Amino acid sequence: MQDQRDRELAAQYDSYPYPARDPAEEARRLIVGSPSHLREVDHWVFGARRAASRPMRALMAGGGSGDGTIMLAQQMAREERPGEVVWLDRSAAARRVAEARAAKRGLGNLRFVEGSILELPDPALGLFDYIDCCGVLHHLPDPLAGLRNLAASLAPGGGIGLMVYAPHGRTGVYMLQDAMRMLTPTDEAPATRLDIGKRVWRHAPDTAWLRRNPWITDHTEGGDAGLYDLLLNPRDVAFTVPQLAALIEGAGLRLSCLVEPLRYDPDIYLPDPKLRERAARLDPVGRAALAEALTGNMGIHIAYCTRPEDQDPAEGRDALWEDPASVPILRELDGPTVAKGIGGGGTLPVSFDGLRVQMPLPRLGAAILGRVDGVRSIGEITDLLAANGASREAVGRDFAALRRVMEPLNRLLLRAPG
């Protein structure tokens, strides 16, 4: 699968590990995101059914300078979750950065292996319960073959978190990439190409579409590595929703969800009942594609995939949400703080890369959120609200309404049992 472009990519990431990270900053912040946030993996991949006490082997395929690797390993360590996270990448320079970041945090649940997903499955590495492949497939000579390699490395019941580029939100990127290749061919030395790339961006006219795209900032905020990866990358292929869905199916996998699911619901952008009726005729992939085409601001797609022979993570999820013993948990939100901002009822403002929508919340929404701490069960939250005078029927009804808003936002999830 390796070709000249692939060798040029290897030279790029050895010269400019991506993303640019300073290990000293680990003392100040943990970079979090999707895919591979532990609470997302528990919910969207394992369906909130896999016991937290069960060891989990995770592979970060194309781990780069370590954002996803450090996030997942730190979250597992913080929650005392057994298992290990294996960083896999062929860049020795990226490995040095990722290892230094792990050392700053004192993480002992990490293993670093230099290698390529092109060489998977690897009997020496074994199978994995979860695989992260973030920002890698769209640079491969054959993305489908790469994803098939990952699928073959999955243990039964496991899943994969993907991130690939999307075309509409990257408007302007590919035009400038064309200009860069004309002025600095991909076979020139990375340092030479970076110098030319900086000069081109400095003098790009105001009419260049990338200057009008506020959602892409790697070239302005990501340092040398960010500019190179965005504008000088030797191979960069974007996927629409249908193309990504076809890639996942072609690899023998099942698309479990796109993140955030609500973002891919065209109804939130189409208040007209006649348009909603027409959108309802589309299948789930078609509806997501419609949302992508309508909004025009999706620069990436994040997807969770599972094996079709395993239980669908969505199967039985409604029953879990109705189970008083289930424990709801917020992803990167503090319930009481959110509750104070909402008040009684009202709406929740949501922003998707500059696109703002108002999501209606039920009357008891703030009261419920204020009691979600990742420890209390649904039954215990219901008991607390009932003790304050709310009827159990009203709590159940409003909890369901709150879930319909917050779960598709990837913010209100179910905690792993045990």
UniProtKB/TrEMBL annotation:
GO terms for molecular function: methyltransferase activity. This is Methyltransferase. InterPro entries: Methyltransf_12, SAM-dependent_MTases_sf. The keyword Hydrolase does not apply. Gene3D superfamilies: Vaccinia Virus protein VP39. Keywords: Methyltransferase, Transferase. It holds the Pfam family Methyltransf_12. It comes from Roseomonas elaeocarpi. One of its GO terms (biological process) is methylation. Residues 1-20 are annotated as: Disordered. Residues 61-159 form the Methyltransferase type domain.
